[in-house]
Amino acid sequence: MTTCAVKFFDNKMSLTKNISYFRFPSDPLRCKQWMEKCQTEHLLKKDATILYKNYRVCGVHFEDKMFLNPNSRNRLTMNAVPTIFSGKILFIIINIFKTK
Predict the structure, then answer these.
(1) 13 by DSSP, 3-state: which?
(2) Each residue's pLDDT tens digit, 30-78
(3) What's this model's pTM, rounded to 2 decimal places?
(4) Residue closest to 4 by CA, chosen among 79, 92, 68
(5) Which stretches make up the THAP-type domain (predicted)?
(6) Is there a smaller number of Cβ atoms within 10 Å at the N or the C end of the chain?
């Protein structure tokens, strides 16, 4: 089952059909940047290849400007980094379900 790798966040793909999930970047430097932003210290010892293959971050952690298509929110820009980890998440989730 695909789940969001963000610390203290328990979104599951099977329960959140309207939210996209994104692989960690395969580039080690960008992958590390995502890990730091997401507070995934438990994954720090894993290779970027393993993270790319096995771990995801859900779309609620990305600002609209990080998407190529902000309305459907299913394609990230090349330099996208997750930045939303606060109360804004509930607002984003509510809006995603309203627009679908």
Answers:
(1) helix
(2) 999 999 888 887 888 899 999 999 999 999 899 999 999 988 899 999 9
(3) 0.79
(4) 92
(5) 1-85
(6) N
